[in-house]
């Protein structure tokens, strides 16, 4: 004889309902757990693990050399000044990062006036590292912008480095800079 649903005893029906309810509760709990975990990951990504720009500070600048050069038949005077720089890089992030060898260009009013050679290195998480770099300034490139240069220096908009003569030592330095990644 075959049993149908109407012939089942009430206790068996009640057990099936309890099983269905348990599965529903379990499914809702799993979905809520996954959603909570997802929301938590999004919050952490936008707060704790948000990338922050490293801060840089010029620690030291020393004159390594001055190289004047005069070329003929068309009179051309070139003057290169080489500075050895020590730059402190502070990393506020919770992860360290590596940087490869690089070259930064120095511009004044849209015209390249120098370049910096950067050695590879690693900046620790929530730490700092001093990077040594060599800056070559093509001082002769400023000649065409001499009027603007004098105005900018008098208004205090340039990095101020006072170089002594004849010993060519950096006497004073005051710089404001920005890092754009």
Automatic annotation (TrEMBL):
Alphabetized, the UniProt keywords read:
Membrane, Transmembrane, Transmembrane helix
Q: Which GO terms describe its cellular component?
A: membrane
What residue stretches are annotated with the Late embryogenesis abundant protein LEA-2 subgroup domain?
Answer: 87-152
Signal sequence extent: none
The record ties this protein, via PANTHER family, to: LATE EMBRYOGENESIS ABUNDANT (LEA) HYDROXYPROLINE-RICH GLYCOPROTEIN FAMILY, LATE EMBRYOGENESIS ABUNDANT PROTEIN, LEA_2 SUBGROUP
Family matches, as InterPro entries:
LEA_2, NDR1-like
Protein location: Membrane
Q: What is this protein called?
A: Late embryogenesis abundant protein LEA-2 subgroup domain-containing protein
Transmembrane spans: 25-49
Q: What is the topology of this protein in the membrane according to its UniProt annotation?
A: Single-pass membrane protein
Does the keyword Cell wall biogenesis/degradation feature in the UniProt annotation?
A: no
Looking up Gene3D superfamilies in the UniProt record yields:
2.60.40.1820
Chief localization: membrane
GO BP: any one term:
defense response to other organism
Record SUPFAM superfamilies: LEA14-like
